User: Fold these one by one.
Assistant:
Number 1:
Amino acid sequence: MHVKGWVKSSLLDYPGKIAASLFCGGCNFRCPHCHNADLVLHPDQQPDLPSDQIWDFLSRRHGLLDGVAISGGEPTLQTDLLPFARRVREMGFLVKLDTNGYRPDVLEAMLDAGLVDYVAMDVKAPLIKYDQAAGVAVDVKRIQHSMALLRRGPVDYEFRTTVVPGLLAEEDILEIGRLVSGVPRFYLQQFVPHNTLNPEMTSRVPYLPERVRAMVDLVAPWVGEVRLRGV
Ligand code: SF4
C-alpha cells in the first residue's frame, strides 16, 4: 500500500465511529475541484508511510479506535488493498472504503470477500456531465456498476456529491437525486477551494450555506436521508 499520509484518530471520516484515516497516493480521475492535488498528481514525490509503522500503531489502538478509513487518492488502485483490508479486519477493526467507484471489479471483490464494513462512493455529477466532473473520459457504466453493487447490499454505504460551483446547479442536483434514488443515505458536501487540482478552482467561491441547504430539499424526496458535510 502506498500510504502517503494519515490521521491517527478522527470522528469525521467514518460516520458514527472513531477511525484512523489512511490516504493512498494516485487516482484514475483528475477532478478539477479535487483538493488532494499533490496526492493525485505527484504521489511518487511523497514517501510511503512505512507499513510497520501502521501495523505497530494499530496494534496499540484496540479499544481506542473502531476502524480504519482507507481513502485517497483512489484506494482501489492499490494492488494489495484486499490483503491490507483483511489484516486490518483480522486485528479487530472495521474497514471503511472511500472510492470514486471506477473499479467495480475491486469493489466487488472486497464486498464478496467480506473485507469492508462501510463504503462511501462519490457520485460526482449527472452521468452526462461525468467527464467534466472527473476531468477524464469516463465510462459511466463502471460508475453505474459500482452503484448497483452497493445497492445489492448487505454492506452499509453512502453516496456523496461535492457541490462544485460552476459544475453543479440545482437542476444537476435534481438529476443526481434521481440517480441515487432509493439509497438510505446521501451526503451533500461543500466545495473546498484549497490546493485544487486545477489551480483556477481556488478562486471559485463555494455556494452560500443557505443555497446548499436548499439543495437538500431537492434530493430529499429520492433518498432515505440527506446529510450535509462542511456546511
Ligand atoms: S476528487 Fe477526484 S481526482 Fe481527487 S481523489 Fe477523488 S476521484 Fe481522485
Number 2:
Amino acid sequence: MRLGSGTFAACCVVIEVLGVALFLRGFFPAPVRSSSRTEHQAEPPAPEPSTGASSNWTKLPPPLFSKVVIMLIDALRDDFVFGSKGVKFMPYTTYLVEKGASHSFVAEAKPPTVTMPRIKALMTGSLPGFIDVVRNLNSPALLEDNVITQAKAAGKRMIFYGDETWVKLFPQHFVEYDGTTSFFVSDYTEVDDNVTRHLDKVLKRGDWDVLILHYLGLDHIGHISGPSSPLIGHKLSEMDNILMKIHTSLLSEERENLSPNLLVLCGDHGMSETGSHGASSMEEVNTPLILISSAFERKPGDIRHPKHVQQTDLAATLAIGLGLPIPENSVGSLLFPSIEGRPVREQLRFLHLNAVQLSKLLQENVPSYKKEPGFEQFKMAERLHGNWIRLYLEESTSEVLFNLGTKVRRQYLDALRTLSLSLSRQVAQYDIYSMLVGTVMVLEVLTLLLLSIPQALSSKAELEVPLWSPVFSLLFYLMFLVLSALHVIVCTSAESSCYFCGLSWLMAGGVMVLISALLCAVVSALAKMFASGKLLSKNPAHPNSRWSELDVVILLGTMGHVLSLGASSFIEEEHQTWYFLVNTLCLALCHEIYRNCFLGNDCEPRRCSHGERGFVNTAPALQDRSIGHDELEPHRVSKSPTSLNTLRGWEKWMAMASPWVILTCCRLLRSLNQTGVQWAHRPDLGHWLTSSDHKAELSVLAALSLIMIFALVQRRCSLTSKVAMALGLLGVYCYRAAIGNVLFPWQRDSKDISKETPTT
Ligand SMILES: [Zn+2]
Ligand SMILES: [Zn+2]
C-alpha cells in the first residue's frame, strides 16, 4: 500500500498514542475506591455485633476530644524531632515526647512525597496515585470522602491557616481561613508569620472545634539550602515555641471545660539530603506523628525509636477522635494507643467500626476477597466480639470478660493490620499485562518508523507500507491466534483486575489484529532491507565504511551512559560516569590527532558512516548531514579532506594542545562539584564560590567567562548578531546580579544578606 509520508506519520502517531495510553493505564493503577455511594449520604454505622442478646448501641460513639489542633510542618523529617536536632532545637517537644502525655510514631508517607497528595492521604486515608503529582499545582476541590467533609457535615467549626493548597482542596469547609501561597520558595519567614499572627486571637476564642495550621517555612529552607543548613535549627526552635504556646493554651482551656483536647504534630513528607522531596528515600518518607492529649497516660518508654505506622492511619484516628464515620476510602488502621485509655467496650466498638470499613473496601476492590487472610481474621474477631457482648450484657465475672476482651482486641488488631496491608498492596500493583500490550504496540510502531525513515525522506516523500500482503499471510493468522489464546489464558487466570481484560472482546480483538499486522509489516520491511543490503554489499562501488576508534568510543559511551541510568543510584551520581566518559573521549581524540599528525594521513578521507549503507537514494540528504557534522564537531576536522598535514604550523600546535586544555578544564570543572548529590552538604569549590563571602570572586569569574564566550563566538557572526549576543550576555550578568548572585562593579559587597541562593 502506497502512503504519503504525512499520512504514514499521522497513522504512526495515532497508534503510538493508543499504545502509550494503554501503558500508562497499566502503570498508574486505579486507586482503591469505594463504589457503594457516590454522594456522601449518611449511612447508618455498623451496629455492635452480638450473638443472642441484641445490643442497643447502634449510634456512632461520641467524640473523644472536644477540640483538635493539627499542626502540620511541611517537610518535617523524623530526625528533626526524634534525633539530635530535636533534642537541641525542640526542647519542649522532646519533653512532651519523653515524659508528657503523648503518643509518638514515625509515619511513613507513600511516594509521591509531594504536599498535595500527602494532605489528601492524611485527610482521606486513601493512597493517591502518581497522577496526583501532575495535578499538584492546580489542585481541584477534593470530592472524595474525607475527615474535613465529615466534620463539616457534623457541624464542626473549622479554622485553617497556612498553605493555600488546603483552601483549594476544601473551598467551603472552613469558617475562617488565611491561605499562603507556597510559590515563593526563597521566603521562609513571611509564610510562617502569616500563620502565627492569627494564633493569639484564635486560641483565646472558644468558637471552634478544629484548628489546622500548615507551616511552610521549613520546606522552603530545605529547598534553598538543604537539611544541614543552620537556618533549620532556628526554624525548629520557632516551631517548638509555637507548639508550646498552643499546648499551654489547650491545657488551660481543658481546666475550664473538663474535656480533653487533642494536639497533633505531624509533617506531610520529609526532605532528602539535598533538601528536595518527591521520591521514596527514607529521609523523604519518614515523618514524625505525635498525638498529645491529657486523655493519654504518661508513660516513659522506648521513645527515641517510635513505632512505624502509615501516614494514612491518621484519618481513621482523627475520625474516631472527633466522633465521625471513618472516610470510606481510607486504607489506614486506627492508631490503637489513642483509644487505649477507654473502657473495653468502647475500644472494641472503635476497632469493629474500622474493621467493617476496611473489609467493605476490600470486598469492593478485590474479587477474591473471601480468600484474603485479613477478611477471615475480621470475621473471626466479629464472632468473638459478639460472644463478648453477650457475656458483657449478662454481666459475667470480670476476669472471664477481661480475658476474652483482650483476645478479641488482639484479633481485631491483627485483622486491621492485614486488611490495611493488602489494601495498600492493591494500589502498588502494576497492571503488567496492559503495560506489556502497550509497550509492544509502541515498539512495533517505532521499529516500523525507523525502518521507513530513508524511504520517507527520499524525494518522492512517499513510501510503500507492506501491510496488505502480510495481512493475508500465514504469519498474521498464526500471530492472531497465539495472541488471542494468550489473552484468554491471562484474563481467566488473573486474580487482580486488569484494565485490558476489562475491555470488550471486540476492542481487545481489534488491538490483537493491530499488533499482528504491525508485526508482519515490520518483518516484511526488515526482509526487504536485508535483501537490498545484500545486493549493495556485492556492489564494489560502495565505499568501504569502517568504524574508527572514536566512533566506537562515542557509541559505546553513549550506550553505557544510557544503560547506567537504569540504576537508580546512578541517576543521582550520574556525573561520575559523565566525567569518566568525557576524559576517555578526550584521550581518544588526542590519540586520533597525534596519529594523523605523526604517522601522516594514512587513512582515506571517509564519509560519515552513520548507517547509510543500504540506501543509495538518500545520499544527498546524508551528505548534507555530514557537512553539518564537520561544522558542529571540531574533532571531525581531522577527518575532513584538509587533514592536519595541510594545516599551518601554529594551527597544528593548537590542534595538538587542545585535548590537554580540555582535559585540564574538565578537571577544574570537576572540582566545582565533586561531592555530587549524596554528599552535597560537604564543602566544595562550588560552595566556596556561591557563599556570600566570595561574591566578588564569583563576579569576576562570571564576567570573564561571559567575555570569553563573546570573544570566541563573535568571529563568525554578522554585526547584528554580534550586538544581539553582547546584549544577551549582558542580560545574563544583569539577571544574576539582580537576584543577588553576583555584584555590579559599582556595588559594594553587603555582608548582611544572610540568604544563600544556589546558582543554577
Ligand atoms: Zn510539603
Ligand atoms: Zn517542598
